[in-house]
Each structure stands twice: as C-alpha cells, then as structure tokens.
C-alpha cells in the first residue's frame, strides 16, 4: 500500500514543484515503469532490483491477486486462474481470441470484449490489466515517495480504438490519471532520438510479445512526426514459442497434454527460443505431469526455418508503411529495433537485408519504450519547458461508417495526423424518415463485416421530409490519445439533434464507475484522499499557469473589469483548495476555466498570429 | 470562442492564396503553428484552453493535409474560388480517356495474373509520366482565372490516375509478398 502524501494547504500551489509523472510500458510479456529524475530517464526497479514485471496475474480463491514473477512461476500449476499475455485480449471479442489457438481459460462471451471466469470471479481483460498497473503505480509511488500526478501509458501503434479505450479504462481502474496514450514505436523513437540527437527519417521495428508495429518517423528540430504506421496486433514473440511447441508435439509425439502441460511446454519453448539467440543448438528436458519426461532438442537452423513464415509476415506491414509514407527503403536513414523479440538473429537478419543496412540496437529493446514514455510524461506534467520536443502521431486504421449494402465509407483515412476531425454528410432515403442508424467501424476493408465495429447509435427526431432533403452531418473527432468520438446532427431543419458516443466495447461509464467503486470499497478513505489530492494538484497547476499567463498578457488582452472577474474567481479557487471538499474544488476549477475562456482564446489567437508573422522562428533555439 | 473558421487553409498558414505553393514555407508554417497549438503544449492548462488547443491543432492538421497533396490542393483551390469539381455528380468523361483507363486497368489485371512484374513497372512509369503532365496542365489552368472551369475535368482525370496508381501498387505488393 502506497503512503499517502498529505498536501498541506498552499503546498500544491507552490510554483515549480516537481510533479511526479511516469511512463508505463504495459507489455504483453513484461511491464515496466520509468521516470525522469535529475533530467535523466530511468526504469524503476522493484524490491529485487528487477526492472521487468512479468505481465502475469494469478487469481486465488479468497480473492487474493498475485502479479509478476510469483504469478508467472505458478502458471503451469494453476493455468486456468493465471492470466498471461492479457494484452492480446484487450478490446477483443470471443472470435478474435479463438484465433490464438488453445488457451487454458474459461472464456465468457460478452459484448465487445471477452471475460475470463476465474476462481475469484469473472474478470475482464481490463480488470486483469488494472492489477498489473496497480503494482506499477505502487512501485512508482514508493520509489518516488509521493503521489503520481499522472502517467503516459504506451500502446501498440496498431491498436484500434477498442484496444486503446480498454487500456485507458484499465488505467482509470488502477487509479492512474492518464496524461496521454502514446504509441510504442513513437515512445521508442523519443528515447532513441533524444539519446542520439538524430535527425532524419527512421523506421521503428517493434516486435513485442504479442504485437508487431512498424512506424516510419521523421525527426527534425525536436519534432517527431510519424509519417505512417502499420503492423499486426496479433503477431509477436509468443507465436514463436507456439511454433516451437507445435514442432515438439509432432516430432516427439507429446500427447494432447492438459492445460498445465501445455503451459510447461510453452515455457520451455520460450526458454529454448531465448537460448538460441546465442547458441546454435539446445537440448533440454521437459518433465510432464503424468511422470513422463521428454528429451527435446532444437537447432537454431531448424528454429529459423520453422518460423520463417512469421518473419515474412512482418515484412508485409513494413512495405505498406513505406508505401503510405511515399518512401522507399533507400530513404530510411536508420532502423531502430524495439521489443525483446527483436533479439532473435533471424529477425535482425531479415530487417537488415530488407533495409539494406544494419539495424540500430544501442538501447535496451526491453526498456526503450518505457524510457520514451517517461520523457513524454515529464513534458506533459510540466516539469520541463516543452520547447524542444513535440510528437505528431497518426491513427493506424481508417475510421468510417456503414453505408447502404454493408459497405464501408471511410471518413478519416489511416495515417492521418492527430488530433483530427472530419465531417461527412448523409441524407435520408425514404420520405418521412425520422431516424437514421449510424454504425461506426474501423479498418481498411470494403465490407463492414470485415472491419471492426466500434459503435452503433441512432439519430432520432429528424423532422419528416421528402427523401434526400435532410442533411445529416456526422462528425468524427480523434483526440491526441487517438480516441474517437462521433456526433451527428440534422442541419436543415434547425432542430439540432445531437448525439455523442464514446465508442467502447460495451462497458458504459456507469459500469466503469461501478467497477471503480468496487475496487475502492475496502479503501473508501483512500479514494477520497486521492480525489482530494488530484483536485488540489489540478487547482495548483491551474492557478500557477494562469498567474504566468496574466503576468505576460493580462495587461494587454484584458479590460479592467474582465481582469477583476478572473482575479475574483482565482481567489475563490485558492480559497476552496485549502478546504477538504474535492467536489467544491472541482466546481471552482470549472468556474475559473469558464471565466478565463475568452482570455485563453485571445492568447491563442495572439500566439498564432505571432508565429505566422515570423516573430517566433523555428530555428531561433538552435 | 474557437479558431477563425472563415480563414481558408492558405490564410491559416499566412501563405498566398495560389495553387503554386512553396512547400518548404508550408511545412515551416505548419510546424511553427503546431509548436504553439498542439494539445501537448497545453497539457497543464484549463479545460477551455485544452479545447481551444485541440481545435486549433485539428484545423492545422486538416489544412496541412489538404495543401500538401497536389490533387487535394487543386480541388480545394477550385472550391474556394466557387468552382465545384462535381466528382460525385458529373460522370461525363471524354471517351478516349475512359478507353485508355480501361485498357490500363485490364493490363494491370493481366500482368498481375501472369506474374509479369516488369510489365507492371512499365505501366507504373507510364502512369507517372501521364500524371506529371496532367499536374502541369492543372497548374497552368489554375494560374489563370479564365481556365478554372477546364481544371475541373483535369481534377477528375487525376482522380482516375490516382486510383490506377493504387491498383498498380497493390499488384506490385502481391509480388513482393
């Protein structure tokens, strides 16, 4: 249990306080947490001095939850209740999970995302991920001796909207304020680029335990611009273990083993895979539960031959990413390798021969994502003048709508820089039609059934008109986390029917609140203290930012009476923040935000005008 | 309050409203603008300011995407000059152009089925040549106010060529795989 730091009144508003923020790499196999201390990003070590937390969660009868090494050690003993590689289930339905082959869990079909029936009850992948995140949060708060203001959490670039939303919800459930969801290859590029002070066009080749991403980025003058991204969110190091397991089964005649033996077999496969990185040949013994022992052997050559199709599968997304960036291999200045699975020599060779140059491996492929996330978290928490680092990322998959005949109409094409928005107009096809069904999908295929369904909603209350007369504007907005929201509005009638959806996998806000409450039920006090802490930090941050803005532009952009209103509102917030009612602080924050809206708009207009008049020049810092 | 949406994309980046564009100036203006307005620059700000930042950044991204692409820029330039390219409504195309497009598409399919990569590359080169010539024509048509109407057909033709290019790339990709 983390120690709660009690913020004294006024303390939170002290200027230039270092805000504790971390980067979290929530991986398929291992998870890490990193932070920036004294200007350097470092991965935090647990009590055993280990930077890696195995992403394994074991549920026990009394509701106890074990996470990490101990859970991993138990997976062969209690496979049904020990969830490994949960990341592969995030935002996935039962049909998706079936593609992963035989798994030891009791899956339960539920709208949008599977759930797992464990000895401690039914758990969704969001719950399981939240357990991992809680351990990382506690580790961070203990190591840094304070409460976190927030975290940047990384996701595979090729994660779709449901998978991203699920990740964000898991963080919420773990009591983590998400500063930003950041794409893993982009995070790696940040760590790598800053370390090497590189400029140019880079490919980031990221092969994790369960996901594969390729991103093409341009680095120039502190701006990391993602030109394109592609990948396969169900291809990773795990598949290489599976291939070895399948090979042994057929060659050594290992009978249809139970779940426990399957786990043992796969663990052995992973161990052998890792040893083959440095050894040409491995021999090992696998004892199974029914007493039989198998002597297993594998040469690197055999391993590489049997997994060559997996390596080939990675090159297709690489070609697509290059094509979308309108580049050829010769335009790439360097290839950065990320993820433990890129240690395999034949993956290295395939990448080297495809790009015609040796890949860059000078940062630890297991840590580089967490380090990059920590650097970005530090920037977003406001600990560092952000002038020298800006990330421009893209959405990986096109977003669209279902139109007549089950066809997809793309509204926002893949690789659009975020944040982005686009509106599309539709009309009614029947006289007097008063409602319209809107089905939001994500993917590249032409048929809706081949794309992922994100949300369905109905726009009602369209005034009866002749067919084709209504003008229904559907607006897609993607925020800086890559998350979509959709609204629809009928334009002609003047009656504005407006619907907002946050696509998710069937978990409503109410359900999430319920889950949150449940997780806090034993720690009501804890929850209140946390909410109060968060609101105080927010209040302090806001007052600090506003004071700086007023000092700079208050005299020139505000009339005296406007200034008086803002000052009064700020005074109220400072006063409320000394109390211990987090709701009152929240209200005062909202009030101050409203009061300063015109001021904020004028400041933004002015800074934009300054930029475009050339008063601020890109190269001024160099 | 929100960004000034009456500004067109050229004005947003303080660039002359002209089809011919200094691409470096566009890129510079885009990057400078995003350095100011990107949501990451306003992460600690009030909700109102965050909202504004998101709106500005969205607008800058949209404008940049349109101006960067010669075809989208052409279509947009016509649009702000009150000329609709009628790409959805007007399907009338010169017969010889359509004939040539059909021939090319058939060739792409044939070459793909025959596994003839060389022929595809030749087709790709010819298509690119045509496209370059057509963009030059578009540039001329868009630089004189009297020929904006003619530019509509050029834009529609370029859209065909763009699609053809995608088909050729798709076919080439199947060979690479």
Q: Could you give the topology of this structure?
A:
The complex is a heterodimer of chains A (622) and B (177).
Chain A: E1 21-26, E2 30-37, E3 40-43, E4 53-54, E5 56-59, E6 65-67, H1 69-73, E7 82-84, H2 94-98, E8 106-108, E9 115-118, E10 121-123, H3 125-144, E11 150-155, H4 161-173, E12 178-183, H5 184-196, E13 200-207, E14 212-220, E15 223-232, H6 237-252, H7 259-275, E16 281-287, E17 293-299, H8 300-324, E18 334-338, H9 345-355, H10 368-380, E19 390-392, E20 399-403, E21 407-412, E22 420-426, E23 436-442, E24 452-459, E25 472-478, E26 484-490, E27 499-501, H11 509-520, H12 524-557, H13 560-576, H14 582-595, H15 597-612
Parallel strand pairs in A: 1-11, 11-12, 13-18, 15-19
Antiparallel strand pairs in A: 1-2, 2-3, 2-4, 5-6, 5-7, 8-9, 9-10, 13-14, 14-15, 16-17, 20-21, 20-23, 22-25, 23-24, 25-26, 26-27
Helix pairs in contact in A: 3-4, 5-10, 6-7, 6-8, 8-9, 12-13, 12-14, 13-14
Chain B: H1 9-12, H2 23-37, H3 47-68, H4 70-80, H5 95-114, H6 117-143, H7 148-176
Helix pairs in contact in B: 2-3, 3-4, 4-6, 4-7, 5-6, 5-7, 6-7
